[in-house]
TrEMBL record:
Residues 70-186 form the NACHT domain. Pfam families: NACHT. It comes from the Eukaryota. InterPro entries: AAA+_ATPase, Cytolytic_pore-forming_toxin, NACHT_NTPase, P-loop_NTPase. This is Si:ch211-108d22.2. Residues 32-48 have a biased composition (Basic residues). SUPFAM superfamilies: P-loop containing nucleoside triphosphate hydrolases.
Length: 1278
């Protein structure tokens, strides 16, 4: 049927006859008609529409009509199938069996031209119908003699104006011939008075409609069957044909709106009644009939407003217009009958009413308002027709009836008014979508989506395929923003679902939409295409945890059909018992599931509620898993283990497998299925080697039962505990089945763990005393291992356990700690304790249990004298003492250690014990006061600050008491780092001097801060004999560093003048190293310019001092400048070139120089040229030489020679760019005159004069190479 025009008669589908409803009857009484119409107006719209479809009657077939001898009049509405019925009778006559000679003649009375010319029976039969090849006279004679063998059909008769036809009907010509007439109801009065059998053709029954659509549309028939308006419209065969044509996907590849079908029906009816074969002629005909059509439309509108189908005010009697109607004869008195009309179908009335509205746009607003009322809500059905009729696309109708300017004027603002007419909460979104689908207007769709905030709530609706087309069209117009679509409890057919799936790329794919779609799919009675929905969402199948059995059975069928495993997503909306239908379906489809995920469909606002919902989700998920595992245990004995493992992998419980197994054991017991426990042994034995359990959430008895199933002892880790005595005793019963017991400290209350373990020890001691069992020994054995507890918290735990047990021993007199000696001995080599939270006496008890001295790290301390003295008692058991600095007050640590030293000195004086020596020995290591593992976390300056503060504290103590403490600490200070870092703005230099005096050799010193006090400067000079290298932190500004160090030099010079000491030489020696003034560790991170800036500024500072005082300092400091880096970097915009010249003169050899910045002062440029004899290599910007030539005026050959020397340092590479003036060209030209053969010249000037070029290039100039740009040549030309 592709590319065929089904409107043409010759291209109509080759269809077999579809049964029509035929009813033999007399005239319908006027009263009954009137009553029937009155009743219709009170019906609901669906019921009203269904009255148009005739009911199947006791069948009268075409064959019956052919066999009867009686004349027949076949009465029916236009297009109702009268012609098709007569054609079927002709077909039956032609195909009949039998040798009896008879005749059948068929005349189409709509073709009247030849009929009117016939003047005799012979003309009618042989000229109009068909002439025999031979024996015409014999045939005619036989027809006349045997007229009982003749059947004549007059199809579509309207009158008896033809005399021959009238004489045949009146039986004058062929008295015994059988006459069959078809006519419309308003023409039958002329024939019904005769002795004719009256048969009314009522059109298609519902069964015939379905048969017809099945043949013409195939699967596409569902589009019509699910649309009540179109279904009932199809009871008229002519309309059914047009509906079929419009819905043919091959004929109409684009979406076909309902209004288009009505437009085509109207055009076809007009065409059939006007005999206009060409579209151009038809449009002309419609235009000519404009007034009559609009008159019909007005009558349709008026009747619609009155809620009736009877057109009582119709003034038009044009036959083409009346072809849309059927007459109604209403008896108003005994002797009077009036004729009224109604449309063949109610929706045709609505169509014409909408047409009239567009001709009268001032009424549109009224209809909008009427449609919102209960009384006149039926008027809303006109609106979708108007939406499409305003569209100018083909097929057209309105352009033939209403001027285009009027239509466009009506269209402006029509859709905005439609969208905004009802902005309330009960807005009919589906109706609006249908209207916009009819309009095929993307702009209106965008307006609607924006009004609805891109959210379409279609919940509780029933969507036929047409509605789905409408929704899909509107959704597809959203190009930039995804739409939220709600399809909760929506009913959709398979065909409608196909339309919706096509637009899902424009929809937000998030809960609850996937779940809603799958629910629609699985509960549908039709065969849905599940693969299309799986393809939308990565092969995911979304299910609620509650639902009908059909829902879950459908899900299993889908899983079994697809070739790849599906990903199942389950949704909970509230806590609920495990749905057995779900459980059975998951169990049945287990092999077809790739993954399983869970979601909560509803979350209240607030983090607490979210957390509560998440907890609910985890709990419900676990219940489902346990139920499935139990089902596997009961029904899958042989493959139980593999099924459970499969379930564990789907539920992603491998990280919490222990708890799941414990829950499963408890579930089996609580469900009364203990008989299957022996079968579960393999699952429990395959569990991880460490059993992790929270005894605050589950009974220890469950753990005991599970441990008994193990083939060997297992490690157990407790993440929570209960203080109930029964639980503690139950845990003791587990000990024979445990290889190792560990604890995870609780962040909420870290003391809980030690207290529980202490209670466990005490309970073990009591039980041992009562029964004689070696319970303490057994408990101790499972806790004796190197990593008992967690590494970071084990010290606090064991110290608290020790404290708890000591209290128990004191209270009961029982000895428990000796039994735990192995536990405390197996602990790590470093004991960490915060003395501000725990008593030192507990640490002493623990250290006494150790087989050897241990390292101790203090993370906090107490100033109580008793605690300090207790710590001194611990020293014999300590191998190394370290401190963790406190961020709150870094001075706390030095003060505490100072107090410890003072207490040790006092005790030593009182008892004679070598306490100071012992304390010094545990602190003598290179990283003191830090443990080795802490050094990466702290700046090494802290170590120096700590020791300097300790020294200061001890010095004050010595001054106050007269005791000598520092000599005993010499080993501590001597083991300190090789670089002493000090901020002289915070600490006295005298303290540094004391520390340096304790050193066995000179030390490197780094200054991170400075004091301007003269006394501090002098003190630093006193430190010089003990310093091997003096450096500064790069955190200093260069200018500050230079000033401070300059002051130090000046102070050294003055002291040397006063005392004759070689202080300057000493200061020079500690500063003579390649990276001065920075330590080596900074040189990789900082710009080497820092060092050069420092030395240049220092030189300038010292020169000023020499000028001011007359003292000679620089000669002594020459070694410092000579040890400087091999490259001198200077910024000409910030420093005088004369300083660089002075520094370069101090060098024993030529140096490399890197120039940055620029100064336009000629004196600076000339100073730079004086530096050339001391420079081995020069680095600068490419245009540096050009700038020099521009800045100075060359007056002598000697100056030219200097420029040649400069160019030589630049490897004779010369670049000239920008605007070259004559002065620059002249200077460069003179330089080239002396060395041109070595020069590589690059010319990229923006502008240069011909005169300048002649100065630049003299006849004798011969370059080594020359590169230039086209711009240069153009600049010469221009």
């Amino acid at each position: 049927m592709a590319n065929k025009n089904l409107f043409e008669e010759r291209n109509r589908p080759d269809l077999s006859y579809t049964p029509l409803v035929l009813e033999e009857q007399g005239n319908v009484s006027p009263s009954k008609i009137k009553k029937l119409k009155s009743k219709k107006s009170k019906m609901s719209r669906p019921k009203k529409l269904r009255t148009y479809i005739p009911e199947d009657k006791p069948e009268i077939s075409p064959s019956d009509l052919l066999k009867t001898d009686k004349d027949c009049v076949l009465v029916g509405k236009p297009g109702i199938g009268k012609t098709a019925l007569t054609h079927e009778m002709l077909k039956l006559w032609a195909e009949r069996d039998g040798e009896e000679l008879d005749y059948m003649f068929y005349f189409d009375m709509r073709e009247t031209s030849d009929l009117m010319k016939a003047t005799s029976l012979e003309d009618l039969l042989f000229s109009v119908f068909s002439e025999p090849d031979e024996g015409k006279e014999e045939v005619l004679d036989d027809i006349k003699k045997n007229s009982d063998n003749v059947t004549i059909i007059f199809d579509g008769i309207t009158d008896l104006s033809s005399s021959v036809v009238k004489r045949l009907v009146d039986k004058d010509l062929l008295p015994d011939a059988k006459i069959i007439i078809t006519c419309r109801p308003d023409d039958e009065e002329d024939f019904f008075s005769r002795d004719f059998r009256r048969v009314e053709v009522k059109g298609f029954s519902e069964r015939s409609i379905k048969t017809y659509l099945s043949v013409t549309l195939g699967e596409e028939q569902k589009k019509v069957l699910n649309n009540l308006e179109l279904l009932t419209l199809c009871h008229v065969p002519m309309y059914a044909l047009m509906v079929s044509v419009c819905f043919s996907s091959e004929i109409s590849p684009q979406p076909c709106t309902t209004t288009e079908i009505y437009i085509n029906i109207v055009r076809l009816c007009l065409k059939m009644n006007s005999n206009k074969k060409k579209t151009k002629c038809l449009n002309f005909y419609i235009n000519n009939k404009r007034e009559q059509i609009l008159s019909l439309a007005e009558a349709a509108f008026n009747a619609a407003e009155r809620k009736t189908v009877i057109l009582t005010d119709l003034s038009c009697e044009d036959s083409c217009v009346l072809s849309f109607l059927k007459p109604l004869f209403i008896k108003v008195a005994h002797t009077e009958t009036i004729t009224a009309y109604s449309f063949l179908h109610y929706t045709m009335q609505e169509f014409f009413a909408a047409l009239w509205l567009l001709k009268n746009p001032d009424k549109v607003q009224d209809v909008f308002q009427q449609s919102l009322t209960e009384e006149m809500k039926h008027m809303r059905h006109l609106i979708p027709f108007m939406c499409r009729l305003l569209n100018e696309k083909n097929p057209s109708l309105m352009t033939c009836l209403i001027p285009a300017e009027e239509l466009r004027s009506t269209s402006d603002g029509f859709f905005k008014e439609l969208i905004n007419k009802d902005r309330g909460s009960d807005v009919d979104i589906l109706f609006l979508c249908q209207c916009l689908y009819e309009s095929q207007c993307p702009e209106a769709c965008s307006d609607l989506l924006n009004t609805l905030d891109y959210s379409l709530d279609l919940s509780e609706q029933s969507l036929d395929p047409y509605s789905c087309c409408a929704v899909a069209y509107v959704v597809s117009q959203s190009k930039e923003r995804k739409i939220h679509l709600d399809l909760e409890n929506v009913v959709i057919s398979e065909q409608g679902m196909r339309r919706l799936i096509g637009c899902l790329q424009c929809v937000q794919w998030c809960d609850p939409l996937p779940r809603q779609l799958w629910k629609i799919f699985l509960l549908s009675e039709e065969q849905m295409d599940h693969s299309s929905l799986l393809g939308v969402d990565g092969n995911q199948l979304h299910l609620p945890v509650e639902g009908k059995k059909q829902l879950f059975e459908g899900a299993v069928k889908v899983m079994q059909k697809v070739t790849t495993k599906v990903n199942v997503c389950l949704y909970w909306d509230r806590p609920t018992p495990v749905c057995q239908h779900l459980c059975e379906s998951l169990f049945e489809g287990l092999l077809h599931i790739s993954s399983l995920s869970f979601r909560v469909t509803h979350r209240d606002p607030g983090s607490e509620d979210q957390e509560r919902h998440h907890e609910t989700l985890r709990r419900e998920e676990k219940r489902l898993l346990l139920e499935l595992c139990l089902k596997a245990a009961l029904h899958k004995e042989e493959s139980f283990h593999s099924v459970v493992n499969r379930l564990f992998s789907l539920f992603s419980v491998n990280t919490d497998l222990i708890n799941i197994l414990l829950d499963f054991y408890h579930h089996v017991k609580s469900e009364g299925c203990s008989s299957v426990i022996p079968k579960l042994r393999s699952v429990f034995q395959s569990a991880p080697s460490v059993w992790i359990i929270d005894l605050s959430e589950r009974k220890t008895s469950i753990l005991l039962e599970v441990l008994k199933l193990q083939p060997e002892k297992k490690r157990v880790e407790l993440t929570g505990w209960s203080d109930e005595e029964s639980e503690v005793r139950s845990l003791l019963q587990c000990l024979p089945y445990i290889s190792q017991l560990s604890f995870v400290p609780q962040s909420s209350d870290p003391s809980d763990g030690p207290r529980f373990f202490g209670n466990l020890l005490c309970a073990a001691a009591e039980r041992e005393q009562q029964t004689g069992e070696k319970i303490l020994e057994l408990l101790s054995s499972v806790c004796t291992y190197q990593t008992f507890l967690l590494k970071q918290k084990w010290c606090d735990f064991l110290l608290d356990v020790c404290s708890h047990v000591k209290d128990y021993e004191t209270k009961t007199g029982l000895r428990v700690l000796p039994s735990l000696q192995s536990v405390f001995r197996s602990a790590s080599s470093v004991w960490i304790i915060d003395l501000s939270e725990r008593k030192t006496s507990i640490l002493l008890e623990v250290l006494k249990l150790q087989p050897e001295k241990k390292q101790v790290e203090l993370t906090g301390w107490s100033d109580e004298e008793s605690e300090v003295r207790s710590l001194l008692q611990c020293l014999p058991y300590i191998s190394q003492l370290s401190f963790v600095p406190q961020s709150s007050d870094p001075s706390d640590g030095p003060r505490f250690f100072g107090n410890l030293l003072c207490a040790a000195a006092e005790r030593e004086q009182q008892t004679g014990e070598k306490i100071l020596e012992m304390l010094s020995s545990v602190c003598t290591y290179q990283t003191f006061p830090f443990n080795d593992r802490d050094m990466d976390d702290y700046d090494p300056q802290y170590q120096c600050d700590f020791l300097l503060d300790v020294c200061s504290h001890v010095k004050d103590y010595e001054t106050k008491t007269g005791l000598r403490v520092l000599p005993s600490l010499q080993s501590v200070f001597q083991s300190a780092p090789s670089v002493w870092i000090i901020d002289l703005s915070e600490r006295k230099t005298s303290i540094l001097l004391e520390v340096l005096k304790l050193q066995p050799e000179k030390k490197r010193v780094e200054l991170t801060g400075w004091s301007d006090e003269e006394s501090e400067v002098r003190s630093l000079l006193q430190c010089l004999p003990y310093i091997s290298q003096l450096s500064f932190s790069p955190l200093f500004k260069v200018s500050n560093q230079t000033r401070l160090f300059g002051n130090l030099l000046c102070a050294a010079a003055e002291r040397e003048q006063q005392t004759g000491e070689k202080i300057l030489e000493l200061l020079s020696s500690v500063c003579t190293y390649q990276t001065f003034p920075l330590n080596n560790r900074y040189m990789d991170d900082d710009d080497p310019q820092y060092q050069c800036d420092f030395l240049l500024d220092l030189f300038s500072h010292v020169k000023d001092y020499e000028t001011k005082t007359g003292l000679r300092v620089l000669p002594v400091f020459q070694s410092v400048f000579q040890s400087a880096p091999s490259v001198w970097i200077i910024d000409l915009s910030e420093r005088k070139t004369s300083i660089l010249l002075e520094v370069l003169k101090l060098q024993p050899e030529k140096k490399r120089v890197e120039l940055r910045g620029w100064s336009d002062e000629e004196s600076e440029v000339r100073s730079l040229l004086q530096c050339l004899p001391y420079i081995s290599q020069l680095s600068c910007d490419p245009d540096f030489f050009q700038r020099v030539c521009t800045s100075i005026s060359v007056k002598s050959r000697q100056e030219v020679q200097q420029l040649v020397s400069l160019l030589k340092l630049l490897d004779f590479t010369l670049q000239l760019t920008g605007e070259l003036n004559r002065k620059t060209c002249r200077t460069v030209g003179r330089v080239l005159g002396l060395c041109s053969s070595n020069v590589d010249l690059i010319l990229t000037p923006r502008k240069v004069s011909v005169r300048g070029a002649s100065l630049l290039f003299r006849p004798s100039t011969q370059l080594h190479s020359l590169r230039y740009t086209v711009t240069y040549l153009l600049s010469l030309v221009l």
